[in-house]
Amino acid sequence: MTPQTAHHLTQDQARRIAVHAALLADERPRDLLDTARRLTMLPLDQTRAVAPAAELVLWSRLGHSHRPGDLDDAIDSQQIVEVAGHWRSIDDVALHRAEMAAWPTPGPWKEWHHRLHDWVAANEAARRDVLERLRQEGPSPISALPDTCVVPWRSSGWNDGKSTRMLVNQLVQRGEVAVAGRSDRERTYDLAERVYPDTAVPSLAEAEAELDRRRLRAFGIARAGAVYQQGDPVGSGEAGEPAVVEGVRGRWRVDPEALDALDRPAPARTELLAPFDVLLHDRKRMDDLLGFDYTLEMYKPREKRRWGYYALPVLRGDLLVGKVDASADHEAGELLLHAVHEDEPFDDDTRSAVESAVADLASRLGLTVAEAPHGG
Protein backbone atom coordinates (compact mmCIF):
# COMPACT_ATOMS: atom_id res chain seq x y z
CA MET A 1 0.00 0.00 0.00
CA THR A 2 1.36 3.41 -0.98
CA PRO A 3 1.89 5.66 2.05
CA GLN A 4 -0.44 8.65 2.16
CA THR A 5 1.06 12.08 1.70
CA ALA A 6 0.79 14.01 4.95
CA HIS A 7 -1.10 17.28 5.12
CA HIS A 8 1.25 20.08 6.20
CA LEU A 9 -0.51 22.47 8.56
CA THR A 10 0.51 25.51 10.53
CA GLN A 11 -0.42 25.54 14.20
CA ASP A 12 -3.01 28.25 13.44
CA GLN A 13 -4.60 26.00 10.80
CA ALA A 14 -4.63 23.00 13.13
CA ARG A 15 -6.26 25.06 15.85
CA ARG A 16 -8.96 26.32 13.46
CA ILE A 17 -9.68 22.75 12.38
CA ALA A 18 -10.05 21.68 16.02
CA VAL A 19 -12.41 24.54 16.88
CA HIS A 20 -14.65 23.95 13.86
CA ALA A 21 -14.77 20.19 14.48
CA ALA A 22 -15.83 20.82 18.08
CA LEU A 23 -18.91 22.71 16.80
CA LEU A 24 -17.62 26.04 18.08
CA ALA A 25 -17.63 27.91 14.77
CA ASP A 26 -20.21 30.57 13.92
CA GLU A 27 -22.94 28.23 12.67
CA ARG A 28 -24.50 26.67 15.76
CA PRO A 29 -26.01 23.18 15.80
CA ARG A 30 -29.70 23.11 16.68
CA ASP A 31 -30.37 19.70 18.22
CA LEU A 32 -29.11 18.32 21.54
CA LEU A 33 -29.05 14.69 20.42
CA ASP A 34 -27.26 15.47 17.15
CA THR A 35 -24.72 17.51 19.12
CA ALA A 36 -24.09 14.66 21.56
CA ARG A 37 -23.63 12.22 18.69
CA ARG A 38 -21.25 14.54 16.86
CA LEU A 39 -19.12 15.25 19.95
CA THR A 40 -19.28 11.51 20.88
CA MET A 41 -19.50 12.37 24.59
CA LEU A 42 -20.69 14.86 27.16
CA PRO A 43 -18.79 15.13 30.46
CA LEU A 44 -20.26 13.43 33.51
CA ASP A 45 -18.82 15.92 35.99
CA GLN A 46 -21.64 17.17 38.21
CA THR A 47 -19.68 19.91 40.02
CA ARG A 48 -22.09 22.79 40.52
CA ALA A 49 -19.58 25.53 41.24
CA VAL A 50 -21.06 27.15 38.12
CA ALA A 51 -23.18 24.51 36.37
CA PRO A 52 -22.76 20.81 35.51
CA ALA A 53 -20.12 20.44 32.81
CA ALA A 54 -22.47 18.84 30.27
CA GLU A 55 -24.78 21.86 30.50
CA LEU A 56 -21.85 24.21 29.86
CA VAL A 57 -20.85 22.13 26.82
CA LEU A 58 -24.37 22.28 25.40
CA TRP A 59 -24.83 25.99 26.10
CA SER A 60 -21.55 26.79 24.32
CA ARG A 61 -22.81 24.94 21.22
CA LEU A 62 -26.58 25.38 21.14
CA GLY A 63 -26.80 28.82 22.74
CA HIS A 64 -30.25 29.90 23.84
CA SER A 65 -31.93 27.01 22.03
CA HIS A 66 -30.67 24.77 24.87
CA ARG A 67 -33.25 25.09 27.62
CA PRO A 68 -32.98 24.07 31.27
CA GLY A 69 -34.21 20.52 31.63
CA ASP A 70 -33.51 19.44 28.03
CA LEU A 71 -30.56 17.26 29.04
CA ASP A 72 -32.44 15.80 32.01
CA ASP A 73 -35.30 14.89 29.69
CA ALA A 74 -32.90 13.15 27.28
CA ILE A 75 -31.35 11.21 30.16
CA ASP A 76 -34.72 10.27 31.65
CA SER A 77 -35.89 8.97 28.27
CA GLN A 78 -32.56 7.11 27.90
CA GLN A 79 -31.70 8.84 24.65
CA ILE A 80 -28.53 9.92 26.47
CA VAL A 81 -26.98 7.23 28.66
CA GLU A 82 -23.92 6.89 30.85
CA VAL A 83 -21.38 4.64 29.12
CA ALA A 84 -17.61 4.35 29.48
CA GLY A 85 -17.23 7.33 31.77
CA HIS A 86 -19.29 9.87 29.80
CA TRP A 87 -22.82 10.73 28.76
CA ARG A 88 -23.28 9.36 25.25
CA SER A 89 -25.94 9.01 22.58
CA ILE A 90 -27.88 5.77 22.83
CA ASP A 91 -27.06 5.29 19.14
CA ASP A 92 -23.39 4.70 19.98
CA VAL A 93 -23.92 2.07 22.67
CA ALA A 94 -23.45 -0.94 20.37
CA LEU A 95 -19.91 0.22 19.60
CA HIS A 96 -19.05 0.32 23.29
CA ARG A 97 -20.74 -3.03 23.93
CA ALA A 98 -18.18 -4.61 21.62
CA GLU A 99 -15.50 -3.37 24.01
CA MET A 100 -17.51 -4.55 27.02
CA ALA A 101 -17.59 -8.06 25.56
CA ALA A 102 -13.78 -8.10 25.71
CA TRP A 103 -13.72 -7.41 29.49
CA PRO A 104 -11.43 -6.97 31.38
CA THR A 105 -9.43 -5.62 28.43
CA PRO A 106 -9.31 -6.10 24.66
CA GLY A 107 -5.51 -5.99 24.81
CA PRO A 108 -2.92 -8.17 26.50
CA TRP A 109 -3.76 -8.96 30.10
CA LYS A 110 -1.57 -7.53 32.82
CA GLU A 111 -1.28 -8.92 36.32
CA TRP A 112 -4.05 -6.68 37.64
CA HIS A 113 -6.41 -7.89 34.89
CA HIS A 114 -5.91 -11.45 36.12
CA ARG A 115 -6.56 -10.34 39.72
CA LEU A 116 -9.73 -8.53 38.69
CA HIS A 117 -10.99 -11.52 36.69
CA ASP A 118 -10.30 -13.88 39.58
CA TRP A 119 -12.01 -11.58 42.09
CA VAL A 120 -15.23 -11.42 40.03
CA ALA A 121 -15.11 -15.19 39.50
CA ALA A 122 -14.73 -15.77 43.25
CA ASN A 123 -17.90 -13.71 43.80
CA GLU A 124 -20.01 -15.46 41.16
CA ALA A 125 -22.84 -16.07 43.62
CA ALA A 126 -22.90 -12.36 44.54
CA ARG A 127 -22.98 -11.49 40.83
CA ARG A 128 -26.07 -13.69 40.38
CA ASP A 129 -27.69 -12.12 43.47
CA VAL A 130 -27.25 -8.61 42.05
CA LEU A 131 -28.64 -9.57 38.65
CA GLU A 132 -31.63 -11.32 40.22
CA ARG A 133 -32.44 -8.35 42.46
CA LEU A 134 -32.35 -6.02 39.46
CA ARG A 135 -34.47 -8.44 37.45
CA GLN A 136 -37.14 -8.42 40.16
CA GLU A 137 -36.97 -4.83 41.42
CA GLY A 138 -35.86 -2.81 38.37
CA PRO A 139 -33.68 0.30 38.60
CA SER A 140 -31.97 0.43 41.99
CA PRO A 141 -29.20 2.36 43.72
CA ILE A 142 -26.17 0.55 45.09
CA SER A 143 -27.59 0.78 48.61
CA ALA A 144 -30.57 -1.38 47.58
CA LEU A 145 -28.45 -4.19 46.15
CA PRO A 146 -27.36 -7.21 48.22
CA ASP A 147 -23.82 -7.44 49.56
CA THR A 148 -23.07 -11.14 49.40
CA CYS A 149 -19.47 -10.99 48.22
CA VAL A 150 -17.50 -13.80 49.88
CA VAL A 151 -14.18 -12.23 48.89
CA PRO A 152 -14.13 -8.54 49.84
CA TRP A 153 -12.59 -5.90 47.62
CA ARG A 154 -9.15 -4.88 48.80
CA SER A 155 -7.42 -1.70 47.71
CA SER A 156 -5.24 1.04 49.09
CA GLY A 157 -8.17 2.03 51.29
CA TRP A 158 -10.36 4.31 49.16
CA ASN A 159 -12.78 1.52 48.15
CA ASP A 160 -12.33 -0.89 51.05
CA GLY A 161 -15.72 -1.95 52.37
CA LYS A 162 -17.40 -1.17 49.04
CA SER A 163 -17.43 -4.65 47.55
CA THR A 164 -20.93 -4.38 46.07
CA ARG A 165 -20.11 -1.05 44.42
CA MET A 166 -16.93 -2.46 42.93
CA LEU A 167 -18.72 -5.60 41.74
CA VAL A 168 -21.46 -3.57 40.06
CA ASN A 169 -18.80 -1.40 38.40
CA GLN A 170 -17.35 -4.52 36.83
CA LEU A 171 -20.78 -5.76 35.74
CA VAL A 172 -21.28 -2.40 34.03
CA GLN A 173 -17.93 -2.73 32.28
CA ARG A 174 -18.86 -6.29 31.24
CA GLY A 175 -22.13 -5.08 29.72
CA GLU A 176 -24.40 -7.04 32.09
CA VAL A 177 -25.60 -4.05 34.09
CA ALA A 178 -26.12 -0.45 32.93
CA VAL A 179 -26.60 2.91 34.58
CA ALA A 180 -30.34 3.46 34.22
CA GLY A 181 -30.38 7.06 35.41
CA ARG A 182 -30.02 9.11 38.56
CA SER A 183 -32.22 9.77 41.55
CA ASP A 184 -31.20 12.75 43.71
CA ARG A 185 -27.83 12.68 41.84
CA GLU A 186 -27.26 9.03 42.87
CA ARG A 187 -26.85 6.50 40.07
CA THR A 188 -29.48 3.81 39.63
CA TYR A 189 -28.70 0.53 37.87
CA ASP A 190 -30.69 -1.98 35.86
CA LEU A 191 -30.08 -4.97 33.63
CA ALA A 192 -28.27 -3.80 30.52
CA GLU A 193 -30.83 -5.53 28.30
CA ARG A 194 -33.49 -3.13 29.65
CA VAL A 195 -31.39 0.00 29.07
CA TYR A 196 -29.36 -0.64 25.92
CA PRO A 197 -31.09 -1.07 22.56
CA ASP A 198 -31.38 -4.54 21.09
CA THR A 199 -29.13 -3.85 18.12
CA ALA A 200 -26.37 -5.89 16.53
CA VAL A 201 -22.98 -5.52 18.17
CA PRO A 202 -20.11 -5.25 15.66
CA SER A 203 -16.84 -7.07 15.99
CA LEU A 204 -14.28 -5.49 18.30
CA ALA A 205 -12.07 -4.48 15.36
CA GLU A 206 -14.99 -2.84 13.55
CA ALA A 207 -16.12 -1.05 16.71
CA GLU A 208 -12.66 0.27 17.56
CA ALA A 209 -12.14 1.56 14.01
CA GLU A 210 -15.52 3.31 14.02
CA LEU A 211 -14.92 4.84 17.46
CA ASP A 212 -11.55 6.14 16.24
CA ARG A 213 -13.25 7.65 13.19
CA ARG A 214 -15.95 9.33 15.27
CA ARG A 215 -13.45 10.61 17.82
CA LEU A 216 -11.34 12.12 15.05
CA ARG A 217 -14.43 13.75 13.56
CA ALA A 218 -15.14 15.39 16.95
CA PHE A 219 -11.50 16.46 17.40
CA GLY A 220 -10.80 17.40 13.77
CA ILE A 221 -7.14 16.65 14.36
CA ALA A 222 -5.81 14.22 16.95
CA ARG A 223 -2.73 12.31 17.99
CA ALA A 224 -2.25 9.17 15.91
CA GLY A 225 -2.37 5.67 17.30
CA ALA A 226 -3.77 4.19 20.50
CA VAL A 227 -3.36 7.12 22.89
CA TYR A 228 -4.94 7.18 26.33
CA GLN A 229 -5.38 9.79 29.04
CA GLN A 230 -6.10 8.26 32.44
CA GLY A 231 -7.47 5.18 30.69
CA ASP A 232 -9.71 7.19 28.33
CA PRO A 233 -8.92 6.99 24.60
CA VAL A 234 -7.93 10.33 23.09
CA GLY A 235 -6.07 9.14 20.00
CA SER A 236 -7.41 8.66 16.50
CA GLY A 237 -5.90 5.25 15.79
CA GLU A 238 -5.21 5.31 12.08
CA ALA A 239 -8.47 7.00 11.13
CA GLY A 240 -8.39 9.94 8.75
CA GLU A 241 -5.23 11.04 7.00
CA PRO A 242 -1.70 11.79 8.23
CA ALA A 243 -0.77 15.34 9.11
CA VAL A 244 2.31 17.27 10.12
CA VAL A 245 1.87 20.38 12.24
CA GLU A 246 4.59 22.98 11.88
CA GLY A 247 6.60 23.32 15.08
CA VAL A 248 4.71 20.54 16.88
CA ARG A 249 6.21 17.12 17.46
CA GLY A 250 4.44 13.80 17.11
CA ARG A 251 2.23 11.91 14.67
CA TRP A 252 -1.11 13.48 13.87
CA ARG A 253 -4.21 12.41 11.95
CA VAL A 254 -6.69 14.84 10.46
CA ASP A 255 -10.30 14.29 9.42
CA PRO A 256 -10.27 15.15 5.70
CA GLU A 257 -13.76 16.67 5.95
CA ALA A 258 -12.49 19.00 8.68
CA LEU A 259 -10.04 20.57 6.24
CA ASP A 260 -12.98 22.59 4.90
CA ALA A 261 -12.52 24.81 7.97
CA LEU A 262 -9.41 26.28 6.30
CA ASP A 263 -11.61 27.85 3.62
CA ARG A 264 -13.88 29.53 6.16
CA PRO A 265 -13.33 32.76 8.08
CA ALA A 266 -12.26 32.59 11.70
CA PRO A 267 -15.23 32.27 14.07
CA ALA A 268 -16.43 35.48 15.70
CA ARG A 269 -18.01 33.92 18.79
CA THR A 270 -16.75 34.22 22.35
CA GLU A 271 -17.63 31.28 24.59
CA LEU A 272 -16.96 30.19 28.16
CA LEU A 273 -16.09 26.50 28.04
CA ALA A 274 -16.42 23.72 30.58
CA PRO A 275 -13.10 22.56 32.05
CA PHE A 276 -13.91 19.12 30.57
CA ASP A 277 -14.90 20.38 27.11
CA VAL A 278 -14.20 18.10 24.14
CA LEU A 279 -11.90 20.79 22.72
CA LEU A 280 -9.72 20.46 25.83
CA HIS A 281 -10.27 16.77 26.52
CA ASP A 282 -6.79 15.64 25.48
CA ARG A 283 -4.68 17.83 27.77
CA LYS A 284 -1.45 17.14 25.87
CA ARG A 285 -3.10 18.14 22.58
CA MET A 286 -4.48 21.23 24.33
CA ASP A 287 -0.97 22.23 25.35
CA ASP A 288 0.95 21.17 22.22
CA LEU A 289 -1.55 22.03 19.50
CA LEU A 290 -3.82 24.70 20.95
CA GLY A 291 -1.10 26.41 22.98
CA PHE A 292 -3.31 26.73 26.06
CA ASP A 293 -1.95 26.53 29.59
CA TYR A 294 -4.71 25.21 31.85
CA THR A 295 -5.19 22.91 34.82
CA LEU A 296 -8.39 22.27 36.73
CA GLU A 297 -7.52 23.43 40.24
CA MET A 298 -10.50 22.34 42.32
CA TYR A 299 -8.37 19.72 44.06
CA LYS A 300 -5.56 22.14 44.91
CA PRO A 301 -5.31 24.13 48.14
CA ARG A 302 -6.63 27.64 47.62
CA GLU A 303 -3.23 29.24 48.09
CA LYS A 304 -1.77 27.16 45.23
CA ARG A 305 -4.42 28.02 42.64
CA ARG A 306 -3.48 30.30 39.77
CA TRP A 307 -6.91 30.66 38.15
CA GLY A 308 -9.51 29.51 40.68
CA TYR A 309 -11.54 26.57 41.89
CA TYR A 310 -13.48 25.97 38.64
CA ALA A 311 -12.11 28.46 36.13
CA LEU A 312 -13.84 28.46 32.73
CA PRO A 313 -11.56 28.61 29.67
CA VAL A 314 -12.35 31.51 27.33
CA LEU A 315 -12.57 30.84 23.59
CA ARG A 316 -12.44 34.00 21.46
CA GLY A 317 -12.91 33.08 17.82
CA ASP A 318 -10.49 30.18 17.40
CA LEU A 319 -8.11 31.31 20.16
CA LEU A 320 -8.13 30.28 23.80
CA VAL A 321 -7.35 33.60 25.45
CA GLY A 322 -7.94 33.30 29.19
CA LYS A 323 -9.94 31.93 32.10
CA VAL A 324 -12.97 33.21 34.01
CA ASP A 325 -13.00 32.41 37.72
CA ALA A 326 -16.64 32.48 38.80
CA SER A 327 -19.05 30.61 41.05
CA ALA A 328 -22.82 30.44 41.28
CA ASP A 329 -24.53 31.45 44.52
CA HIS A 330 -28.11 30.41 43.84
CA GLU A 331 -29.29 31.35 47.32
CA ALA A 332 -28.16 34.94 46.79
CA GLY A 333 -29.18 34.88 43.11
CA GLU A 334 -25.70 35.87 41.97
CA LEU A 335 -22.96 34.66 39.68
CA LEU A 336 -19.90 35.71 41.65
CA LEU A 337 -17.15 36.93 39.34
CA HIS A 338 -13.87 36.45 41.18
CA ALA A 339 -11.40 37.21 38.39
CA VAL A 340 -10.84 37.27 34.65
CA HIS A 341 -7.36 35.97 33.82
CA GLU A 342 -5.97 37.28 30.52
CA ASP A 343 -3.33 35.07 28.92
CA GLU A 344 -2.35 38.12 26.91
CA PRO A 345 -3.75 41.59 27.65
CA PHE A 346 -7.28 41.87 26.20
CA ASP A 347 -8.11 44.62 23.77
CA ASP A 348 -11.35 46.55 24.30
CA ASP A 349 -13.37 44.33 21.95
CA THR A 350 -12.21 41.14 23.66
CA ARG A 351 -12.88 42.53 27.12
CA SER A 352 -16.38 43.57 26.08
CA ALA A 353 -17.05 40.16 24.49
CA VAL A 354 -15.95 38.33 27.64
CA GLU A 355 -18.12 40.57 29.81
CA SER A 356 -21.08 39.79 27.53
CA ALA A 357 -20.34 36.05 27.76
CA VAL A 358 -20.29 36.23 31.57
CA ALA A 359 -23.57 38.17 31.60
CA ASP A 360 -25.11 35.65 29.19
CA LEU A 361 -24.05 32.73 31.40
CA ALA A 362 -25.54 34.43 34.44
CA SER A 363 -28.80 35.01 32.57
CA ARG A 364 -29.03 31.33 31.61
CA LEU A 365 -28.55 30.40 35.26
CA GLY A 366 -31.16 32.91 36.38
CA LEU A 367 -28.53 34.94 38.23
CA THR A 368 -27.06 38.43 38.13
CA VAL A 369 -23.33 39.11 37.94
CA ALA A 370 -21.68 40.35 41.13
CA GLU A 371 -18.01 41.28 41.50
CA ALA A 372 -16.37 39.18 44.22
CA PRO A 373 -12.61 39.61 43.76
CA HIS A 374 -11.58 37.83 46.94
CA GLY A 375 -13.26 34.48 46.10
CA GLY A 376 -11.65 31.53 44.34
UniProtKB/TrEMBL annotation:
Q: Known PANTHER family for this protein?
A: CYTOPLASMIC PROTEIN
Please state what the protein is called. Answer: Winged helix-turn-helix domain-containing protein
